[in-house]
Please model this.
Amino acid sequence: MIDYEKLLHKTVRDIPPSGIRKFFDLLDDKKDVVALTVGQPDFVTPWHIRRAAIESLERGKTYYTSNAGLMEARKQISAYLNRRFSLDYDPESEILITVGGSEAIDIAIRSMVTSGDEVIIPEPCFVCYAPIVRLSGGNPVSLPLSEKNRFKLTVEDLKKVFSKRTKLLILPFPNNPTGAVMTEEDLAPIAALIRDTDVAVLSDEIYAELTYGRKHVSIASLEGMRERTVIASGFSKAYAMTGWRLGYTAAPFQITSQMFKIHQYAIMCAPTASQFAAVEALEQGDSDIEMMKEEYDRRRRYILKGLRDMGISCFEPEGAFYIFPEIGKFGLSSESFCERLLNEQGVAIVPGNAFGESGEGFARISYAYSVPHITTALERIEKFIRSL
Amino acid sequence: MDKILSLLESNGRYTAGQLAAMLGEDAGEINKKIEQYEKDGTIVGYKALIDWDKTDREMICAVIELKVTPQPDRGFDKIAERLVNYPEISGVYLMSGSYDIQLIIEGKSLKEVARFVAMTLAPMEGVASTATSFVLRKYKDKGVIYAAPEVDERGNCPV
Model:
């Protein structure tokens, strides 16, 4: 028999399964579970956007696009980034259309990180960065953030892990799972620290449209940062387009031209029908974003009040569609809290430590669900904590 | 426009407490506003949307286009005010276009609706003509899609 140990890449074998996956597997054989677990909108993609993709298929537009993506879509992305976040990127040489924000993150890390490089990853955060860094031969350096700073990245924290080997800083804001955001004032000292270095920033801005009470600021718009920043973003969260698998990178052409090669050989191009949908979304979709954001905002206030009213302490999330309550005071680890909540009351939420060790003592609750659904879940959560 | 109204239009069962939490306002204030809306007739009523096809109750719905001779001084108001009194009629609309008044009629059977049109509506003073169309199937009403209950099919991708 073939020796799989020898066959398979050691780094790949050593990647642990995602902590979220592990918890989702527990859900598989459970019935009547009220889940607050998903990381995707409950809205259907607005009809005019779906219509645009259908029309492209009706007209037989079933070909590959250019590697970087439809020029019309890149022009629209460029205009959008300028309109919403005052950023300037040349559609010809500085924007790549990717298969979701995920591919954008992948090609950004792989185009920069090599053996021995350190990549600073503020945690809790989405689970993909460290495995990709490892696959590139780099060393992920966890930077635990704390609730007392509202899970923001501070320059004091950053200085603790900054070294000569630091190649890249991941900036995952608005943040999954905490809902934390970084304001311009929060970003300024970070920018000042890395401005005159050779350190780059991967700014994962997939939730940029989902901020409440203030507008998202991209670090790329701060002085001296554009030249060293790769923005990874996409259509999934803002336009409820997760299944279309469409994202993009915006970065200086020196970086884009290298990411382009990975994308060209690994992917070829993003799905064509999705790209036509994206053109429609960017041209006509601003009001859809507003409508969905308003609804998320109502649920955010609703769930925050619900949790606080039952005595769970919880900082106010200002972005994305997650809330990250502190559950440590109930004397259970995050995992056993969530497992017992699932087994005893049939409510599924994700243990905070699935997003990094500093998430221990917390849990992620997604509010990408209707208010009646959230209400049922809150009632059951309250019953559960009363029983502890 | 007050957000309370659009939220209640989307779900009439929201409590004042829920609306207050969603809007970041005080429940007492919300209650006062709702009472005021009910008093001044902005909120006209609360109802459940029922798909009668899922029950054993026989129900047939018809849309009737009326051409009407307007009355001196009162225009179409006089006949409309008379029409609203019939319990068989669930909707009365004054229309622009090729006819004047649209009625929505609900009845137990085709026969019952036909009898109402022939015996009550057509002979009514001021009614010049009627054109009746029966609803064969309701796909969407009041913004709600009448189909199988929505199932959350979102995949559990570890996001």
